[in-house]
Amino acid sequence: MDILTVRDLTVGKKSSPVIEKLDFSVAQGETLAIIGPNGAGKTTLFKALLGLTPYSGSVTWAPNVKIGYVPQRMEIETDIPLTVEEFFKLHGSVATPEKIREILNYVQLDTPILKSGFGEISVGQRQRILVGWSIMDNPNVLLFDEPTADVDIFGQESIYKMISHLHKTLGLTVILISHDLSIVYQYANNVLCLNHQKLCYGIPDEMLQAEHLQSLYGGERGLYKHDHGNEKAHNHTSS
Most exposed: 9, 18, 101, 194, by fewest CB within 10 Å? Predict the structure, then answer.
């Protein structure tokens, strides 16, 4: 059963569309990764899926779907007078003490962080809090816009493991934008290659071949070795 169907989606001016005649679908419970160069329309696609920008064509969600969204980053001043607990409580009546503790357990944070200033915690902790915020209303679908963009290399894998845990535990459909092809290999059922148009769509092992990535990113990018589990390394265009 498809939870999302996109047909003939076009965003932007006819003379220079940001996205043009895009078609794809996402099955319930699937993890879809979206890859492409900077400026390819990935974040614009998310805005269209969320109904935040005008478009032509159709975006059809399954009936009664509820969507959570995690932005790439949230700029917070370190001296902002807001604790993590107060931030959660901005969600309204759903943010009971019991619910907040449940959410912290899901995002693998300890309760003492609730008393910390929201601007004082680490970038990785802040991203986990944003993920927690996004699942407060028990969504069916989570959209992640490069969820580890500002996180150091040691924290990135743990955040993706957390996302995978949420996907399995809560039965979520996950759509994520990522530049890390190893993450796409490890966690995605399907990958959408986007550069204003759909250049490829399918399972990562078949789509993330050199010819697809060369078409997606162009010849100016170098090639790098990507080790996929115990399989032999592939040459891929870097992203």
Answer: 101
222 pLDDT exceeds 60?
Answer: no
**pLDDT one-digit tens code per residue, 17-55:** 999 999 999 999 999 999 999 899 999 999 999 999 999
92 lies in some domain: no
Residue-range definition of the domain harbouring residue 41: 2-74+138-237
- Section 215-238 average pLDDT: 47
The β-bridge partners of 173 are 141
The span from the CA of 42 to the CA of 74, in Å, is 18
Asked, for residue 221, whether it belongs to a domain, the answer is: yes
Closest CA to 152 of 127, 120, 119, 134: 127
Residue 79 lies in a domain: no
Residues in the chain: 239
Confidence (pLDDT) at 75: 65
129 domain-assigned: no
Confidence of residue 80 (pLDDT cuts 50, 70, 90): confident
Compute the distance between CA of residue 152 and CA of residue 96 in angstroms, rounded to an integer.
Answer: 32
Q: How many of the other CB atoms lie within 10 Å of CB of 28? A: 15
Spatial contact of 193 and 216, defined as CB atoms under 8 Å apart: yes
What is the CA 91 to chain-centroid distance, rounded?
21
